[in-house]
Specification:
Blueprint lengths: L1 E2 L5 E2 L6 H28 L5 H27 L3 H46 L11 H57 L6 H32 L8 E4 H18 L3 E6 L4 E4 L1 H18 L5 E9 L2 E7 L35 H11 L3 E7 L2 E9 L13 H6 L8
Helix pairs in contact: 1-2, 2-3, 4-5, 5-8, 6-7, 7-8
């Protein structure tokens, strides 16, 4: 076809508009019929091999092409020999297309089977091994997605196994820790009930010891309840903007009597203007757990230092002790449930169930913070990092000589 000078569309010589309309109507009609038949066949083969479906698609295309050429040849070509030659050529081309389609379908089938075998092998080996033959881009992307998903599932299973082992260990340890004070309470109660102890002074001592054991059990139960809320995601935080230096000052002040009783020097320092959006009660509990743990493991005349400052745009609180350090193999497990890093776990009279560090980690992470531990100097250092509400202008407050000598805090809480 070509356009004449006046913009009129002109047909090649020997071709009339009636021929074009005739061919268009027949070709469209036949193509529509073949397409509908192909769609019906594909629906019936929806659950069959991709090889069969790809063959049907190519067959529909070839048949439509052959019918179109046949209609054109019947309408436009005069002799039967010429029509037969054209149809033969189209038949050869269609056959070649079918061969190529079968080759491609076989490759896709083999690739999908290789992925299927790799997935089935996970149940035997526990590892997804991606197929080695080159895969088509889409199937290669699917295989990479399966590899990533398997790695995530493997990590999740590993965490679940570790958590389950930790839970079993916790049940065993807590059972031991509960049994010890309960046995003492029972023995003292029976002694008082049977009047084995009747001396007023001894009776008073028994009453005092019973109260201490009850307080110890209360601490253990409180820790278990707090940890269960953290693991269940039921920890309710009443957040508000506070100065982290205020929280640190309160914790240091509350821990001073404990440090003084053990003859441990407790020092503290903080910078001003560290606004954080936290639950001050819960964060105070987390920090108090770290300070109490540091005092407990620091020998007499040792030093526990609490420092609050801004690092890399984060509010940081470090608690350094003189415990002698933690074995490198135990560092990754310090925050595990009920881990104490010692074979004999009989707690002291004021200790809980060994859950303080686990609770601290849960509280810090619930505030979108980070907690870590490392060996440094004469002991180890625990570090809490929390996001600041806004950039502050830190002004360090220095520890004076008298505060350092007496172990009292030197924290400006303004």
């Amino acid at each position: 076809m070509r356009f004449l000078a006046g913009g009129t569309l002109a047909l090649p010589a020997g071709i009339q508009w009636s021929d074009v309309l005739y061919i268009t109507e027949r070709v469209l009609g036949l193509a529509l019929i073949v397409t509908l038949i192909g769609i019906a066949v594909l629906r019936q083969c929806a659950a069959r091999s991709i090889k069969l479906m790809l063959t049907v698609v190519v067959a529909v295309a070839v048949i439509c092409s052959l019918l179109g050429v046949a209609v054109i040849a019947y309408r436009m070509i005069g002799t039967a020999e010429e029509r037969d030659e054209i149809l033969d050529l189209m038949g050869i081309a269609g056959l070649a297309a079918l061969v190529v389609a079968l080759f491609l379908a076989r490759r896709l089938t083999n690739a999908s089977r290789a992925i299927s075998y790799a997935v089935q092998g996970v149940g035997q080996t526990g590892v997804y091994i991606a197929p080695s033959p080159p895969l088509p881009a889409e199937l290669a992307e699917l295989s990479e997605g399966l590899t990533t998903a398997h790695e995530r599932l493997a990590k999740a299973r590993s965490r679940e196994r570790a958590l389950e082992a930790s839970r079993r260990e916790l049940v065993a340890w807590v059972s031991h820790d509960l049994r010890t004070p309960l046995a003492g309470l029972r023995a003292m109660a029976e002694a008082l009930e049977d009047q084995v102890v009747i001396n007023p002074r001894e009776v008073s001592q028994y009453h005092t010891q019973i109260r201490r054991e009850v307080e110890r059990l209360t601490l253990m139960i409180d820790d278990l309840f707090e940890l269960s809320r953290i693991h269940a995601g039921a920890l309710r935080l009443s957040r508000r903007m506070v100065g982290l230096e205020d929280v640190v000052a309160e914790v240091v002040a509350s821990a001073e009597p404990v440090a003084r009783a053990k003859r441990v020097r407790l020092t503290g320092a903080a910078v001003r203007n560290m606004p954080v959006f936290i639950d001050s009660a819960e964060m105070g509990r987390a920090l108090r757990n770290l300070v109490t743990n540091a005092i407990r493991h620091t020998p007499s005349d040792g030093v526990v230092d609490v420092l609050a400052e801004v690092r890399s745009g984060m509010a940081c609180v470090s608690v350094s002790d003189a415990c002698g350090g933690i074995p490198p193999a135990d560092l990754p497990r310090v925050f595990d449930v009920a881990f104490r890093g010692e074979s004999a776990r009989t707690p002291g009279p004021q200790e809980g169930a060994g859950l303080g560090l686990s609770i601290a980690r849960g509280i810090v992470e619930a505030h979108s913070g980070q907690i870590a531990v490392r060996n440094t100097g004469p002991g180890c250092q625990f570090l809490i990092r929390l996001p600041l509400v806004r950039p502050g202008a830190p002004m360090p407050s220095h520890t004076g000589p008298q505060a350092a000598a007496t172990g009292r805090r030197a924290i400006n809480a303004n």
